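Observation: inputs received (chain + FE2/S2 (inorganic) cluster).
Thought: call the complex predictor directly.
Action: predict_structure
Action Input:
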Amino acid sequence: MRDDPQSSPSHLTRRAFLQTTGSTAAAAVIAGYSTPGQSASPADIADGPHIEGAVPITLRINGTDRQLRVDPRTTLLDCLRETLALTGTKKGCDHGQCGACTVHVNGRRVNACLSLAVMHEGEEITTIEGLGTPDALHPMQAAFVAHDGYQCGYCTSGQIMSAVALLKEPCGPDDAAVKELMSGNICRCGAYTNIVAAIQHVRKNT
Ligand code: FES
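Observation:
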């Protein structure tokens, strides 16, 4: 049987690769150059892989400056997950409808899938990785555990980031007010009652 040249790995085109991976992120996201707590030098950036149209940016993420080159079309979500390997922030709908990708920008919650990374130069970005640690949970993380506010866990980081931001927003005291402000975060498992209980616990005890 004759080999099909198009199926040979050596003939894998860039387009075919992207179709295979099924990820627009792979097209848009460019490799990062620094590790947590360590900034890349300008020379490091200049010597990185050449990506047509990529621009240098510095993002301050969880208190650390990260110097990157990114395609200007890269969303903040793809930049976090694909470039920086901060995969605690989840991609659900990728259309601003589920809240799984919620992060904080300058203390306010943002759907990272609806925002371009290049828009956040110099801004303070916080992801779930920057909120607490397994040994020192943020009170909201601890409350989600105590109140069983997660089931499959996929939406949990977005729920928690939204809930933490909610603490600084105008919100009435009752559960209905909390539900209204959390309505942008969808939980497929339906753990809403427990999520609201966790949030109310933190509101009343901090
Ligand atoms: S992935 Fe961003 S809102 Fe759903």
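Thought: report the result.
Final Answer: The two ends are 71 Å apart (CA to CA). The pocket of FE2/S2 (inorganic) cluster is lined by residues 91-94, 96-101, 111, 113 (CB under 6 Å).
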